[in-house]
Amino acid sequence: MDNLNVLIVGCGPAGSSTAQSILEAREDVEVKILERRRRIGFPPRCAGGISKMMTEKLSLDIPKDIIASHVERFRIYSPEGNYFEIDSKEMGVKDLGYVLYRDRFDRWMAEKAHKLGAEIEKGKIWKGNKGDYDILVVADGKPEAERLGVKMRL
Fold this sequence. Notes:
Blueprint: E1 4-9, H1 13-25, E2 29-35, E3 49-51, H2 52-57, E4 67-71, E5 73-77, E6 83-87, H3 88-91, E7 97-100, H4 102-116, E8 119-122, E9 135-138, H5 142-147
Parallel strand pairs: 1-2, 1-9, 2-8
Antiparallel strand pairs: 3-7, 4-7, 5-6
Helix pairs in contact: 1-4
């Protein structure tokens, strides 16, 4: 039986975790990840906040050197300026989440995918076709999709 060939565009957390999930689920699969940047995770794409609940759901045992700070309280604002606040002490927990060093986190996730067998090509821009791959996963964000004329739906 031929191997299933998967192309993942984007080596951020979405692309890396997709590769990990596929490689953990099947033995007959080859995964290639294309990353347009030459350095995974640089420059960082967001502030790097993640809830503790999400790390638990995703079974992410994030190394301590990737955690920039612990989140004990946060506020969520409406467009009108109203907000509500969630405090870890009021909820009886130590942390609500973390602020991560996003560049380190992205590299850590990519390394996990690579150790499972994903081939990662840096500095490669996807041209918008599937090629000889059986499955295509586009995980490189809205700006790249818009560049290629792909409509984003939520």
